[in-house]
Amino acid sequence: MSYKPNDHFARKAKDENFVARSVYKLEEIDVRFRIISSDDFVLDLGASPGSWMQYSSRKVGPRGKVLGIDLKHINVNYPNTICVKGDMNELKMEELITKYNIAKPFDVVLSDMAPNTTGSKFVDQCRSLDLCVIALETAHKFLKPNGNFVCKQFEGEDTKGFCDDLKKCFKEVSILRPKSTQSSSKELFLIAKGYQK
Ligand SMILES: C[S@@+](CC[C@H](N)C(=O)[O-])C[C@H]1O[C@@H](n2cnc3c(N)ncnc32)[C@H](O)[C@@H]1O
Q: Rounded to the nearest whole angstrom, what is the distance from the C-alpha of residue 160 to the centroid of ligand 1?
C-alpha cells in the first residue's frame, strides 16, 4: 500500500477506498486534460497496487475495459478490469490481447511505471527514461489513432528529447507536476493527446 501517515492525500485515499494516493495524480491529469472517456479501453502500465485502475474502471464504465500490467500483484478486481503480472521488458502484448479477447486498439495508454530508486539521480533518470521508451513503443503498437498517452518520468536531461519525440506523433503534448506529488520527488507526467499514426 502506498499510504504515508499524516499525508493529506494518503488519508483521503484511505477514506475514499483507493488502494494508493497516486490516484489523485491521475484524477488531476484527467480533470485538466480529459484523457479518459466512458466506454474507453485503457492500458495501464505499472498498475500495482491499482489506484489508477480503480479510477479508470469507474470512468470507462461497464462497456469499457482496463488492462493493468505490473511486476507486482495488482489489488483490484472489477468486472471491467484485467490484471496481469509481468515485466514490460519481456511481455508479449500480442499474446495478452488474444488471450483476453481485446477486440480493438486501446483508446488510452497510461504509464506510471517507476524503477526502484538507487540513490543515484542519474541512474534513476536513465531507468525511468527506459520505462518511458517501452511505454511509448507499446503505444505505437496498440494505441488507436487520436488516442491519448500519459507517462511518468523522473525529470532529467533527456526529458526535453522525449517530449520532442512525443510531439512528432501527438497533436498536443503537456507536462504536469501534480499537486499530490511529494516535494522530494523528481517525477513529472507527460500528457500527449491525439495520436497520429
Ligand atoms: C508508482 S507505482 C504505480 C502506482 C499505480 N499507478 C497505482 O495507482 O496504484 C509504479 C509501478 O511500476 C511498476 N514497474 C516498474 N517497472 C516495471 C516493468 N518493467 N514492468 C511492469 N511494471 C513495472 C512497479 O512494480 C510499481 O508497482
A: 23
Query: Which residues constitute the domain of residue 121?
Result: 8-195
Residues involved in catalysis: 152
Give how many domains the chain has, as a whole number: 1
The CA-atom distances, in angstroms, between 60 and each of 20, 41, 133, 195 are 19, 7, 26, 19
Query: So what's the pLDDT on residue 21?
Result: 96
Ligand 1 touching residue 89 (CB < 6 A) = yes
State which ligand 1 atom lies nearest to the alpha carbon of 50.
9
pLDDT digits (tens, 9 = 90+) for 153-162: 999 999 999 9
**Ligand 1 close to Cβ of residue 64 (< 6 A):** no
pTM over 0.85: yes
Tell me the CATH number at 74: 3.40.50.150
